[in-house]
Design brief:
Blueprint: E1 2-9, H1 13-31, E2 35-39, H2 44-50, H3 56-63, E3 67-72, H4 87-98, E4 103-109, E5 130-136, E6 144-149, E7 156-159, H5 164-179, E8 184-189, H6 195-211, E9 216-221, H7 222-231, E10 238-241, H8 243-256, E11 264-268, E12 274-278, H9 295-308, H10 312-327, E13 330-331, E14 343-344, H11 347-357
Parallel strand pairs: 1-2, 1-3, 3-12, 5-10, 8-9, 8-10, 13-14
Antiparallel strand pairs: 4-5, 4-11, 6-7, 11-12
Bound molecules: 3-isopropylmalic acid and magnesium ion.
Length: about 350
């Protein structure tokens, strides 16, 4: 029996999660594989009910599982709390660290039906886009110590720290992925300013020379990469980068696909254990109104099947049924664009259509 932890969290998390679980029911019947699902509290709702955003019980549930299907956490209600009680800093980041989920994989794909919703002129993305980010997720400036505001609140410090080992293991993931794609890696850094980036470039280059010389490797400064993503995004295939740069660039790239509500992500460790979550946030402004786009959550489920359960065929099936549903003209509000011959659906109805197309 496969075991997963279901952490729906806050905001739109629970409603989009229900749609993903509906899809999982169908996958169970098609594949004859059962997924035992254990729900646990995370984020603001966990804080409200237990006084902490990441209860020990939740960690235990995750430890007893092979993968975590994650919704989203956070919202204005909890923003004023002490940092360690806040949903993002007190739950999501420690969870990533606890399970050493160092490789954050963010595919950025445009569904042909959604080209109109992209924030770019269509001629820049003709024929679609297919970029995949490998973002380092458990180190860098997110976690380096010291990290503090001085007691007089007149200065503050964050520390950006990387070790050779941390750089190597994420770079290996990127190179391996490139071999199965178009054999190109662009490593993004700020080696003209940051010492961590000088080391990053050195380690990636050495690894390339010794083990992956058949892959085409380029290096790009992060400011240039930010520009190139909106100038000529099709030049990219695999983008390898550190934690903070990956955070920023992946949101930028997401908008090229039209909506944050479309993109899934996988955060995996050395084993096949992973946390699968939409890259958009908890969208408290539209929560509970049947308006949220469930596609990112459903595609996160597909990534879970692919990376943690070796069920690539079923992951493809889910992705195809999403594509088919969009081709049929069904949209949630966030991806409605300007087209006239489309039908706008709520969260549940979109889930139903995708399920029917499976
Ligand atoms: C992401 C998010 C998180 C991050 C936040 C919620 C802490 O923006 O997954 O990209 O910065 O990593
Ligand atoms: Mg982010």
């Amino acid at each position: 029996m496969n075991k997963i932890a279901v952490l729906a969290g806050d905001g739109i998390g629970p409603e989009v999660m229900s749609q993903a679980l509906k899809i999982l029911d169908i996958i169970e019947s098609k594949s004859n594989k059962k997924f035992e699902r254990t729900e646990a509290l995370i984020g603001g709702i966990a804080y409200d009910e237990t006084g902490t955003p990441l209860p020990d019980e939740t960690i235990k549930v995750c430890e007893a599982s092979q993968a975590i299907l994650f919704g989203s956490v956070g919202g204005p209600k909890w923003e004023g709390l002490a940092p360690e009680k806040q949903p993002e800093r007190g739950a999501l980041l420690p969870l990533r660290k606890h399970f050493s989920l160092f490789a954050n994989i963010r595919p950025v794909k445009i569904f042909p039906a959604l080209i109109e919703s992209s924030s770019l002129k269509n001629n820049l993305i003709d024929g679609g886009l297919d970029i995949i980010f490998f973002r380092e997720l458990t180190s860098g400036i997110y976690f380096g110590q010291p990290k503090m505001i001085a007691p007089d609140r007149k200065s503050a410090v964050d520390t950006m720290l990387y070790t050779e080992e941390e750089i190597t293991r994420i770079a290996i993931k990127a190179f391996e992925a490139a071999k199965l794609r178009s054999n190109k890696v662009c490593s993004v850094d700020k080696a003209n300013v940051l010492m961590t980036s000088v080391l990053w470039r050195e380690v990636v280059s050495n690894l390339h020379k010794s083990k992956y010389s058949s892959v085409e490797l380029t290096h790009m400064f992060v400011d240039n990469a930010a520009m190139q993503l909106v100038r000529a995004p099709k030049q990219f295939d695999v983008i390898l980068t550190e934690n903070l740069f990956g955070d920023i660039l992946s949101d930028e790239a997401a908008m090229l696909t039209g909506s944050l509500g479309m993109l899934p992500s996988a955060s995996v460790n050395e084993k096949s254990f992973g946390l699968y979550e939409p890259i958009g946030g908890s969208a408290p402004d539209i929560a509970g109104q049947n308006l949220a786009n469930p596609i990112a959550q459903i595609l996160s489920l597909a990534l879970m099947l692919r990376y943690s359960f070796d069920m690539n065929e079923y992951a493809n099936m889910i992705e195809e049924s999403v594509s088919k549903t969009l081709n049929e003209g069904f949209r949630t509000k966030d991806i409605a664009g300007q087209s006239t011959d489309i039908t706008i659906l709520g969260t549940v109805e979109m889930g139903d259509k995708i399920a029917a197309n499976l």
